[in-house]
Amino acid sequence: MSERPFFVGYLGLPRGLRFMTLALAVSLLIGGGLLATVIARAKDDPGPGTFRFDYGRQTVTGIVALTPTPILHVTKGSEHIEAGRTLMLSGQGKNGALLRARALEGRLANASGILLTRGDLDMMQLVCGEAGLGPADGDAPMAPEPEDLGRWELAGEICDGKCAAGAMRPGTGIAHKACASLCILNGLPPVFISTRPIEGETFLLIAGTPEDPMPPELYDWVAEYVALKGQIVRHGDLLVLDIDTATLERTP
Amino acid sequence: MSTAAAILDLARAWLWIGAAVAALFLSIGIGRIDPDARGAFVFRVLLVPGLLLIWPLVLWRWWRLEKGDRWLPRYRPPSAHASAAAAMSALIMAALVLSYGARQDWPDNIAPRRITEAGS
Predict the structure, then answer these.
(1) How far is B84 from chain A (nearest CA, A)?
(2) pTM surpassing 0.90?
(3) Taking the domains of chain B in order of start, what are their residue ranges?
(4) Which UniProt keywords apply (chain A) (predicted)?
(5) Poorest-confidence range of A155-169, B61-75, B106-120?
(6) Domain of A207?
(7) Count of domains in chain A?
(8) Is A151 found in the same domain as A117?
């Protein structure tokens, strides 16, 4: 029969195994602590984006526009959303608001929901149905005329605007790639985060076509750091970026 | 086709094959390789989700058992626990180091630059 010490939980620790067990326990404790510290310090800052539940439900009136992602030029604000601001619109969860917004394009509408904010990114998560986005009485005033800002060379990240605005933390970065892709596929606003502000704005809404709210070529680049060229147009206080997909490059 | 669409197509094909294997295995195979399953049908539905995912393993085990492989050797205690644990630890560390090595840095050194003015 073997004389090697053998550990059985309910019989206590054999003498020959005590040193090794103690050394292993201390090593695991220190090693685990060090590993946890290194991993935690290597994480990116998730940013200050958040749902503004503290504001409560906000209801505003404005003109619906499509880029084709739905946006709202606010004409009559609320306690926390002043008139003149431009909001990106989203549905609940991973659902966009495009289907509801299509019928209201260019018209005056009431929008109601919870605000998400991160820096200069403002988004409203609409409540369900017409209570979230429905026609408003009165004639629609003129929407702000789009202002062409020219062609730009930029660097940053393509992500979905809702998670980036604080619906998830982190809502950006490679660990969030699958979620961002699903969100954009389901119609949430695709957003480009620039390394530095452009005309005062860091978050740019990505333009698409009525068939593809975001150019399909961009899906492989979601959540990666990229350099690109594109045309920027100002819609209200929101910048919309039309990406030249042939110029996309992965940064080091 | 984008990578995302290709992955979705692959997943769809995998699940369809899994459904075909599930139909075949649960109607014919399970009774042939497991005497206890003969005459029992209700529980078979519970196996469908697992079959959809690991159908290659099911096909392989089915084939082995049809060829006369016995169940008992499968339950012999493995003898490579220590080396497997060490290898897995090394793999986890390697994956961690490689993933951090391959991680991109935020391109803060590239500032936005206007190439052409509006309308040009």
Answers:
(1) 18
(2) no
(3) 3-74
(4) Membrane, Transmembrane, Transmembrane helix
(5) B61-75
(6) 147-250
(7) 2
(8) no
